[in-house]
Design a protein that fits this description.
This protein is mainly beta and about 60 residues long. It contains 1 helix and 3 strands; from the N terminus they run αβββ. It is elongated.
């Protein structure tokens, strides 16, 4: 979901630049695939994929 993009790859500070995302794909059209990236991947980069970030970030507005 694009609504979650900012929790995975926010406006980065130096401390947050090392977030990694692991993308897995097990689909009928392609075999098992896995990819790790430090940028926000396209949903269909390796087929219909599920992505898991190392870190999630929250905004501090109103806290």
């Amino acid at each position: 979901s694009t609504a979650q993009h900012s929790t995975i790859i926010p406006k980065l500070t130096e401390a947050q630049e090392e977030n990694l995302v692991i993308c897995l794909s097990v689909g009928a059209t392609k075999g098992f695939s896995v990819l790790m990236t430090n940028t926000l991947p396209d949903l269909h980069l390796i087929g219909d994929s599920q992505c898991f970030p190392m870190f999630l970030y929250e905004t501090m507005e109103g806290k």
